[in-house]
Please model this.
Amino acid sequence: MKRTIVAMPGDGIGRVVLEEAIRVLTAAGFEAEYPEGDIGWEFWCREGNPLPQRTIDLLEKHRIGLFGAITSKPKDAALAELDPALRDKGLVYSSPIVGLRQHFGLDICLRPCRSYKGNPLNFIRRGADGGVEEPFVDVAIFRQNTEGLYGGVEWSNPPQQVYDALMTHPKFSKNFGWCPKEEISVSTRIFTRKMTRRILVAAFEHAVKYGYKSVTVCEKPNVIRETSGMMYKMAQEIQRNEYPHIELWNTNIDAQMMWLTKNPETYSVIVAGNMFGDIVSDAFAGLIGGLGFACSAQYNPDTGVAVFEPTHGSAPKYAEYPVSIVNPVAMIESACMMLDYLGEGEISKRIRKAVALVVEEGNVRTYDMMKLTGSPDVLKSGAASTREMADAIIAHLE
Ligand code: NAI
Ligand code: MG
Model:
């Protein structure tokens, strides 16, 4: 069956890595068409909308998207680059990837972090005998993607009704009542039971499907009692009633950041709210090779709409290089997550195996894997280009 995948390259290196990932998909035998979805800076500058309606329609129709990366700039810079004909229309730039998440309710974000054997960027630690140990990291982080601190419900100098409502809370009046309203900024952290349940169930289901023995809720329920507390309590109920054979662990985000370099191999599935999920997934990604390796999926379990993307951004300074030097693995891994989602696990397995062989052999390495500082000269120092890395992966497909 030939599929249709909406290809949204976006800006900068997003365009390069997506092209390479599609080459790998095709070489591995995945049959699809890739209509291009316009997204990113170019469309903001030209049309005043970085996420045109036609792109939303395209994704509405085909449901599955591969996304590269976009460039975001601060408000003033955005306005300065807007087509002069559009400048006084009151348009305000907002991130199109956040826009996609909100429009399609892509509330589940999965960021797996798995070490590749032989990756020079893998985390190592000193063992008790003074020797060097390289723990095998295999963690899947489920991040609630639409609520919490990133929900956008925030004010500086809040409206009077909001201030009055806050003043009804004894801790607010006691701890903040001394401060003039004009000097207060408030960002809310809202969790709903519905979305909290969805992210928890997604985490448990993943543990069942891939044979992980535990799910860890990584929040701060002892301090943030209402939101973190609700998530952990719900996790306990869900575990007891629906997944009694999976262990439920509870870590505080701060302690987790310490333990993750001490014993990262202990963890398997981790679930967290939006902010802590963002933090803990970046931290684990650092143990397996960083931005060149960090991939992600975002989906809505009700509608099935899903977008797969590397964690990295558009790295504008590298986008101008005549020969691209960035690592395409994060994008290729994201494409593998898409294959898993579509039930094409046989193809994703072959691609991951090819990546594993290339990494382990160590003959073809992008500049990040050689621990070089990015510059056009890295190619002269023996680093592979983006294309060469993808070619090597294709050559290793069985
Ligand atoms: P970035 O992720 O684009 O780049 C940071 C640094 O990471 C790069 O300078 C490079 O050293 C390294 N890097 C990134 N991708 C790499 C790869 N594939 N291989 C090797 N090294 C890689 O983040 P930055 O510089 O903070 O942001 C650049 C632009 O990207 C900004 O406009 C930002 O708003 C946007 N951005 C977009 C994201 C998205 O589309 N989801 C996510 C993060 C940033
Ligand atoms: Mg992040």
About this structure: Residues 278, 282 surround magnesium ion (ligand 2) (CB under 6 Å). The mean pLDDT is 96.
